[in-house]
Design goal:
Elements lengths: L10 E2 L10 H12 L11 H21 L6 E4 L2 H16 L5 E5 L4 H12 L3 E5 L18 E5 L11 H10 L3 E5 L11 H4 L3 E5 L10 E5 L25 H16 L1 H22 L4 E2 L10 E5 L14 E2 L15 H5 L4 H4 L3 E4 L6 H19 L1
Parallel strand pairs: 1-11, 3-4, 3-5, 5-6, 6-7
Antiparallel strand pairs: 2-8, 7-8, 9-10, 10-12
Helix pairs in contact: 1-7, 2-7, 3-4, 8-11
């Protein structure tokens, strides 16, 4: 029997964790690094002015993706920093008079953990339930929250929340609304006016931009307490010299996500439908988590109830994950699936596949075959 390792190329199906930088974006970063740009705060000389122009262009491109004003965009090191800045910065301002914060049990740790830190510092936190599809329960009728945090697209299941309805209910109670939109660019429209939120976070490496950069949009006139102190960069909220080359890449990735939205949605929708129909046909009893509600294209979280543990480990040709990359090394079952009522043994044995615009039909078919082979081996 031949035990030589397979030479077939590995299929990357973990884009919700990190989507590799698009070639044109990587080229834009390289060009900016080679351009001899100065510090954008040094406006008295030409290299500094060129850096400022590149920074302004990137800010305009991100603002256009969000349907926002340029001066409402604050650059960060990614969505985790943006979430912390928004939530802790707002909670600090609200703590004395409106200390109640509301979120949901299926939020990303980048939202849950800052809010829990705010609770330890004196705020009150309510973590609301989700139903079996991952849809959010309504805000409580009493309690008058000061801050409500809700994601737009769940990173593990792709379930889309009704942000306009959540925002309307929160605003009626006088609350600020923060939206973690990390998984949305290139999959859903991101017009902040239509979403109705007051703050929104994105991260470059989720939609073909470089890692290490992201942005926080905050409604004009809204004040936050900064987490870091130093210079006055980024509206006084994020001191330090900005990474202009990375942000040039972020700006281009945002422009591409906006221009290509419809084409990406259509392509990812076809891939998702093919994957899920193929898996259902090949693996009896397979459950697609969140299939009964609206989901963003390109994300599928699948479970085979009662399957012996180790399904993810059977994959040879496919790079996928068991859920959130932030928790994948802990060995703990997905808190998202647990909140949806999935038994712990099945939640720990679920697989998330997430695709990008460059994913092909042939790669999806290989994913189907690999998951079916692994499940059959475990059943056997």
């Amino acid at each position: 029997m031949n035990h030589q390792p397979s030479t077939a190329p590995l299929i990357y199906a973990d884009h919700n964790a990190t989507s590799p930088c698009r070639p044109e974006v990587a080229a834009a970063v390289a060009d900016a690094l080679a351009a001899g740009l100065g510090n954008p705060s040094s406006r008295h000389h030409e290299p500094g002015r060129r850096a400022l122009a590149a920074l302004d262009r990137a800010r305009a491109q991100v603002a256009a993706l969000l349907g926002a004003r340029d001066d409402e965009v604050v650059f960060t090191a990614g969505a985790t920093e943006a979430c912390n800045l928004a939530l802790l910065g707002a909670a600090h301002r609200l703590r004395t008079d409106r200390p109640l914060c509301c979120t949901w049990a299926a939020e990303h740790p980048a939202v849950l953990e800052p809010l829990r830190a705010a609770a330890r510092a004196g705020s009150r936190l309510v973590e609301l339930p989700v139903d079996g599809e991952g849809s959010y329960a309504p805000l409580p009728a009493d309690g008058r929250p000061g801050l409500v945090a809700a994601l737009l697209v769940n990173n593990e299941t792709g379930v889309v929340q009704d942000l306009p309805a959540i925002a309307a209910a929160a605003h009626a109670a006088g609350a600020l609304v923060f939206c973690d939109a990390t998984q949305a660019p290139g999959r859903l429209p991101l017009e902040v006016a239509a979403l109705g939120c007051d703050l929104l976070a994105i991260s470059g490496h989720k939609f073909g931009g470089p890692p290490g950069c992201g942005a926080l949009w905050l409604r004009r006139g809204l004040g936050l307490e900064p987490l870091l102190h130093g210079g006055g960069q980024e509206r006084g909220l994020r001191p330090g010299t900005p990474p202009v080359a990375l942000l040039a890449g972020l700006g281009l990735a945002a422009e591409l996500a906006r221009r290509e939205l419809e084409a990406r949605r259509d392509h990812l929708g076809r891939l998702t439908a093919r994957l899920e129909s193929g898996l259902r046909a090949a693996i009896p009893g397979l459950v697609v988590q969140g299939a009964g509600t609206q989901r963003a294209p390109g994300t599928s979280c699948v479970t085979v109830p009662g399957l012996a543990r180790g399904w993810l480990g059977t994959l040879v040709r496919v790079a996928a994950s068991a859920g959130s990359s932030c928790a994948s090394g802990s060995g703990k079952p997905s808190h998202v699936l647990a909140a949806m009522g999935v038994p712990a043994v099945d939640a720990a044995n679920s697989i998330r596949l997430s695709f990008a615009p460059g994913t092909t039909v042939a790669e999806v078919d290989t994913c189907i075959a690999e998951l079916a082979r692994g499940a059959a081996g475990l059943r056997g």
